[in-house]
Amino acid sequence: MRDFSVDPDELVVAADHANTVSDAFTHLVWKDERIGDWWSEATDQPSDEHLATAIATYRASLRAATLRLAAQAEHLGAGLRASATDYLHADTPLTPHPDPSDD
């Protein structure tokens, strides 16, 4: 039986370089040469067990990528909230930046 396990480091790479969950999933599924090799073996028909293993692995991969992207979004959201709080509680009045074309 083929090994459909995904290296945990690969999940991190996929999630870090993905703009969406779909991008991460695509990276893990279609760029994995093992899948291409597996499907190209026309004489070796995939069994139900092969398919079930592949589906379970990629569901786990998608879930891991989703959690990673959600954590990144939460981190970004926390930073934005902190910036907004600083802005709202600033003691100094806001002044426009001078326009360099006025010189």
From TrEMBL:
Q: What is this protein called?
A: Excreted virulence factor EspC (Type VII ESX diderm)
